[in-house]
Structure formats: structure tokens, C-alpha cells
């Protein structure tokens, strides 16, 4: 069969991946292939155009072409280069197998010679292998580049919504138009008063849209609120990196949104009415769960009584809510105390920072001195003033000393930061307890301060934990009249409130000694 009677398919492909930017466009490929068809007097049965990468098998247009060839509609393929047909071993092997079985009688390329002989098939397999190697190597180079950028704190891809790419520094910075809208979305959701749909509506009113000017979907809002890039961190490949870009929101605001989302995403049983205290309390008498039911327009809490007979009675939900408010006040500090403590903690932090700078500078100077000693040691070894064994022993000792200094500096900085950070977090949590909140927020705050929540004799019982237990024992909270009186007295620890503390005999009594009889 000569070339005048052969029927060919034209196959062109252009990948949408960035890595195929240098490949000729579809129009250029078609132009060259049509000229080649006229020159070779080839009959073109159909033209296939595909816009998909060939690094993995499963291209629909390619598979359609192969299927029609197996049905005898054509016996040859005209393409610009073998890498247009395959960049993976499955499709490449399929082409060579069809050549072996005479389904494909000829292959013609603009930039590659092929002849259906053992030598031609060998060269074709090498071309397919080179195409696969190019894709694999390019993929590894891109991954390596991404890893390096991430180590430097640089976002490795196009800027996400709310940020803009800086072409000069290759970094990202907040979008002046979209960043304030995103910050508003985080602030609204962190309040716990809005659903994802309502936050989406808020952003729509603010004019926040995608780069293609489309409205954000609920899933877009969900992904945005869970993305740590807005607080200065980069999550890539399941790992978190410290970013160098300017954050749009604070880390605390981001963490608050995650807590709200976690609280709201708890699965709820279908067909059950939503009650505030469902599954939260246990009966203080029999240990069964407390359930809630509605009677005459009011919600009542009662024991399920599934284990043993129980004598506990119904209690109104409003009564339990008021008790929770009182319990929270008993384990919370007065608001003016909290404001004073936060201010004092900040003063201590600043004072500590000044002394920390002196200590850190001293340790850094020691590390620099060790580095200079290592350099001098190397010079002495190169000048043959020291033997190899002497050099190694001395260097090992210096390297170990340097590592200890680095660990000492790191531990000191971490300890100093954690001390003030934990105190600040605790005080601000106590501030939340002192402020008014919704019933749902009150319940969330109660979970922070205690455990083993029970109802017995229509009374809320729980065990305060940690510092909350100490506050509950002293009964500072709630801003009561007695507490206010104590605060007015600068030496309130002498009040009867603290008379239960263990008394000990004074080692230096001031009552005077009686003279001994003569």
C-alpha cells in the first residue's frame, strides 16, 4: 500500500500545564501537519485536537482516536512529535504494540523520522522514554523549587484570594481591595453568631468576588476560613511553614475561627430537636444522661432513668442557664482586676524582654567566639601545626559547646515567651468569663473551666480545674459586695476569708520576754 491510498488521522495536543509553555500552539501544529500531508499526498480522515497533559494515561480524545484505528477507519497517525502522542509508558507501549500488530501501519512526524522496522520501533521507544524522562525530571525540579521556596517562607504558586503576586521579589502581599473584606469575614465568623452561608452573604454585600468576578460559594468560604495563609502561615502538602508575607488577620483570630468551626461541625442526630444542653449533663444521683423535652412552650431537663430508679425531678432550662451564669462568675476574677493584671503582665513582659536581650546577646557573643575558634583551628591544621587527630578532638569539643549554647539560647527564649503567653491567654479567657455572652457561649466557657458536669436536686454541679479551682475556693468572682470590699482593702488577705490558712508560731515573737526571777 503506497502513501497515496493510506488514510491518516491528524493528532494535535497542547497541555494546559505551565511546563508545556514552550510547546507550539495547536494552530502552529495544524499548519505544519497540513503542509506535510499535502507534500506526502496523505488522505486525512479526521483531525483530533486535545488540550490535556499526556503524563498520565486516560486522555479521552487520544483513546477515541485509538479506538477508531482499531476499527480500521485509518492506518496511520500524523503528529508534530512523538511527545504529542505519549509522555507515559502505558500510551507509548500501546502505540508500539499497535505498530507490531499492524493496526498502525505508519507514523509521520514533522520533527521526527519513523519507519515501521525494528530499528524504527526502537528509536520510537527511545523517543517515548525521553518524553517520559523529561516530564519526570521536570516534575522533580518543580518540587525541589517549591521545597526551597517554602523553607524561605515564600508562597510557591499564584497568590490565593486576598493576596497579590510581587513579580520583583517573587513574594505575595495583601490585596488592598479584597484583604479588608476577608478580615471582616473572619471577624464575623469568630463571633459564633453567623453560619457559613451568612458569612458568604456578608462578603457578597462587601463586594468580595473571585479573580474571575464570580460570587464565592459556601465551600469557598469554608476553605478560606480554614486556610492559615491569612494569618502568616503556609500550609503546603499537609505541612505548615512560617511565611514571610504580611498577614491579613492575627493568629488568635484564626484560632478562634477554628474553634467555632469545630464546635459547629459536630454531627447532630437526624430527627432530634436541637436542645442547648442535650448530652451535656449527667444525673448526680444515678449517673444517667440528662435529656431535654418541651412541655407547654418551655424546655425541661430531666434524668433519663435508664439504669436504676431515680428520684430527681424536672428543672426548667432557664433556671439551669441562670445557675451556669452564677457558676461562671464564682470562678472568674472581677473585670477591673483583670484589666490591671493584663497591664502588669505586659509591663513584666517588656521588662523581661530587656533583660532577655542582654542575655541573648551574651550567648550569641559566646557562639560567635566559638565559631572564630573553629576557624582558627582549621587554619592551624592547614598550616600543619596540629595533627589530624588533635584537630578532630578539638573541633568536636568546640562543636559540642556551640550546640549546647544554641540549645541554651533556644530554651531560654521559648521559656520566656511561653510564660507570658500562657498568662496572657489565661487572663483573656477570664475576661471572656466576666463579659456577657449568649447561652451557647456560656456553655462553651463552662467547658473551659470545669469537668464532670451534673445536675442534682435541680442544682448544677461540676469540678473546676487548674487555676479555676483556686479562684472558686477563694470566691473572688462575680464582683460581689464582699469582693469589692476586699479589693478596697490593700491588705485584704488579713480578712476572715483567709483565716482558714494554717497558722504557725512566729519564729521572732514581738510580745517581749518576761525577766527571769532573781
Keywords:
518 residues; 3 domains; 13% strand; three-stranded mixed β-sheet; alpha/beta; disordered C terminus; Rossmann fold; four-stranded parallel β-sheet; 15 helices; Hect, E3 ligase catalytic domain fold
Describe the 3D structure:
The chain is an alpha/beta fold and about 525 residues long. It folds into three domains: about 5-145, Resolvase, N-terminal catalytic domain (Rossmann fold, 3-Layer(aba) Sandwich); about 165-265, Putative Large Serine Recombinase, Chain B, Domain 2 (Hect, E3 ligase catalytic domain fold, Alpha-Beta Complex), CATH 3.90.1750.20; about 335-500, no CATH class. It has helices at about 25-40, 60-70, 80-85, 90-100, 120-150, 180-190, 195-205, 220-225, 250-265, 315-330, 335-380, 390-435, 440-450, 465-475, 480-490; strands spanning about 5-15, 45-50, 75-80, 105-110, 165, 170-175, 235, 240, 280-285, 290-295, 300-305, 315, 450-455, 460-465. Helix 6 (about 180-190) crosses helix 9. It starts with 6 loop residues before the first strand and ends in a 30-residue tail after the last helix. The relative contact order is 0.05.
Give the structure's gist in a few sentences.
By secondary structure, this protein is an alpha/beta fold.
Amino acid at each position: 500500500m503506497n502513501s497515496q491510498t493510506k488514510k491518516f488521522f491528524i493528532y494535535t495536543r497542547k497541555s494546559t500545564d505551565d511546563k508545556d509553555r514552550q510547546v507550539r500552539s495547536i494552530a502552529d501544529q495544524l499548519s505544519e501537519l497540513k503542509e506535510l500531508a499535502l507534500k506526502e499526498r496523505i488522505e486525512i480522515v479526521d483531525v483530533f485536537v486535545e488540550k490535556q497533559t499526556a503524563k498520565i494515561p486516560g486522555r479521552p480524545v487520544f483513546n477515541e482516536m485509538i479506538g477508531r484505528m482499531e476499527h480500521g477507519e485509518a492506518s496511520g497517525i500524523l503528529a508534530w512529535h512523538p511527545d504529542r502522542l505519549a509522555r507515559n509508558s502505558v500510551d507509548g507501549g500501546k502505540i508500539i504494540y499497535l505498530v507490531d500488530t499492524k493496526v498502525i501501519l505508519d507514523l509521520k512526524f514533522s520533527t521526527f523520522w519513523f519507519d515501521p522496522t525494528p530499528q524504527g520501533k526502537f528509536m520510537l521507544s527511545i523517543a517515548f522514554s525521553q518524553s517520559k524522562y523529561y516530564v519526570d525530571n521536570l516534575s522533580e525540579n518543580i518540587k525541589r523549587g517549591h521545597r526551597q521556596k517554602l523553607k524561605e517562607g515564600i508562597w510557591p504558586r499564584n497568590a490565593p484570594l486576598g493576596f497579590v503576586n510581587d513579580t520583583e521579589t517573587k513574594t505575595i502581599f495583601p490585596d488592598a481591595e479584597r484583604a479588608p473584606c476577608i478580615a471582616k469575614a473572619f471577624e464575623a465568623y469568630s463571633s459564633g453568631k453567623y453560619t457559613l452561608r451568612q458569612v458568604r452573604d456578608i462578603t457578597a454585600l462587601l463586594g468580595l468576588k473571585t479573580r474571575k468576578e464570580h460570587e464565592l460559594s459556601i465551600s469557598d468560604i469554608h476553605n478560606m476560613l480554614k486556610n492559615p495563609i491569612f494569618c502568616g502561615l503556609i500550609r503546603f502538602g499537609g505541612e505548615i511553614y512560617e511565611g514571610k508575607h504580611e498577614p491579613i488577620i492575627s493568629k488568635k483570630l484564626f484560632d478562634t475561627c477554628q474553634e467555632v468551626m469545630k464546635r459547629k461541625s459536630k454531627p447532630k442526630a437526624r430527627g432530634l430537636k436541637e436542645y442547648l444542653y442535650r448530652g451535656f449533663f449527667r444525673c448526680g444521683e444515678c449517673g444517667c444522661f440528662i435529656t431535654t423535652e418541651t412541655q407547654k412552650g418551655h424546655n425541661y431537663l430531666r434524668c433519663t432513668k435508664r439504669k436504676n430508679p431515680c428520684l430527681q425531678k424536672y428543672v426548667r432550662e432557664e433556671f439551669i442557664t441562670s445557675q451556669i451564669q452564677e457558676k461562671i462568675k464564682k470562678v472568674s476574677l472581677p473585670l477591673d482586676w483583670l484589666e490591671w493584671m493584663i497591664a502588669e503582665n505586659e509591663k513584666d513582659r517588656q521588662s523581661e524582654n530587656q533583660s532577655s536581650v542582654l542575655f541573648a546577646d551574651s550567648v550569641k557573643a559566646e557562639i560567635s567566639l566559638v565559631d572564630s575558634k573553629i576557624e582558627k583551628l582549621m587554619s592551624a591544621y592547614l598550616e600543619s601545626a596540629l595533627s589530624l587527630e588533635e584537630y578532630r578532638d578539638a573541633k568536636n569539643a568546640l562543636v559540642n559547646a556551640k550546640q549546647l549554647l544554641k540549645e541554651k539560647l533556644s530554651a531560654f527564649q521559648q521559656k520566656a515567651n511561653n510564660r507570658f503567653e500562657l498568662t496572657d491567654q489565661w487572663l483573656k479567657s477570664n475576661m471572656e468569663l466576666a463579659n456577657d455572652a449568649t447561652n451557647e457561649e456560656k456553655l462553651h466557657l463552662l467547658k473551659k473551666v470545669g469537668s464532670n458536669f451534673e445536675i442534682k436536686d435541680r442544682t448544677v454541679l461540676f469540678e473546676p480545674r487548674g487555676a479555676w479551682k483556686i479562684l472558686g475556693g477563694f470566691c473572688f468572682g462575680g464582683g460581689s459586695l464582699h469582693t469589692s470590699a476586699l479589693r478596697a482593702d490593700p491588705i485584704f488577705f488579713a480578712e476572715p476569708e483567709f483565716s482558714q490558712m494554717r497558722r504557725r508560731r512566729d519564729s521572732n515573737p514581738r510580745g517581749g520576754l518576761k525577766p527571769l526571777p532573781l
